[in-house]
Amino acid sequence: MLDRYFKLAEHQTTVRRELLGGLTTFMTMAYIVVVNPQILAQAGIPAEGVVFATCIASAAASLVMGLYANYPIAMAPGMSLNAYFTYSVCIGMNIPWRTALGVVFFSGVLFVLLTVTRVREQIVNGIPDCLKHSTAAGIGLFIAFVGLRNAKLVVANPATFVSIGTLSHPEVQTACLGIVLTLVLMARKVNGAILLGILGTTLVGFARGIAHWPSALVSMPHASSTFLQLDLRGALHLGLLEIIFAFLFVDLFDNVGTLVGVCEQAGFVKNGQIPRVGRVLLADGVGTIFGSLTGTSTVTSYIESAAGIAVGARTGLSNVFVAGLFLVAVFFSPVAVAIPGFATAPALILVGALMTQSIARVDWSEFTEAFPAFLTMLAMPLTFSIATGLSLGVIAYSIVKVAAGKYRDVSIVLWILTILFVLRYVYLAAA
To answer: Which domain holds residue 31?
Structure first.
């Protein structure tokens, strides 16, 4: 039954491989169960309720992605979007968190409408191949940079912006040990090498006293403080339309960049297009609506899904396992969050290395293809934003194609995106 529904044989995978992929993906993104409540609590939302909302919304969206779209791309509240929700909307604009949740709800409704009308599908399919390839590589560099930061191998430096961390630090040493362990396992082609690397690094952290065993095995969810607490009437206020557009814009292109990059890595892109992309894009709209009802910010696809894909996940069955683990985390959140950041860092670094192989598919001898690809790939880690990297790549593509007299290579969709991106930067400069 599973083989027929998820087409396991067609995708050359097995239930065991999908389970390993789902478990690996969940472990690399389990931090969201703790980090999201910490951020949203600063907006005044009860943290206990956000834990419940994070797990339930992530499970619901991941389940839609797995069962309806049949892709191994996990969903959860986006990190950049929860920061925008808290610091820009609630704190910066003094908007009550219940009203802000209402804004998230309406942005989710717009996501669904844009998906049903195939607007978002046209955007995804309209991105040139060179930008698809470079987006995958850029996300690889991005998540590798995140991994290096989590391992404290790369730290801030006022003189040089970034520099190498203190190698005498126990967390840095343990992360390096984890990288070596995972490298050896991957080189020996051990099944589940990345997952074993995470577990091994975590155990070393426990032994060295730099990570702590779970404070408890079970914790009961507290749903009532955030469930159905959104203020829809307040969100309809005219002045909040700008915020709805901001949520829509950031998530739209952040999600598109992640989808393109992860699908490119997994080999899902066929003839320059992602099959069933309409179903894929529906998942974050449904997840965002569900998240606003339960009490969390916008839900989007996660680049950590690349870790599960790297160990063999190829179908939505992997996402079903991820959804199940998020539901379990509602009651076992202390266990889920006991995995320290330095333990998942090696997985992110090595998966990032695997994703960069797509740059070989860019035609580097053609300048009008090479430069937009280069800019996209470079901007993602340096601006710490997938959406920014993709937007700069699109603008550069249109400019360089017109300059070279190849304006016919720029589609109508790409012209519209270019104009929207330029207007966005003009608005940001004037703000």
So the answer is: 2-129+216-338
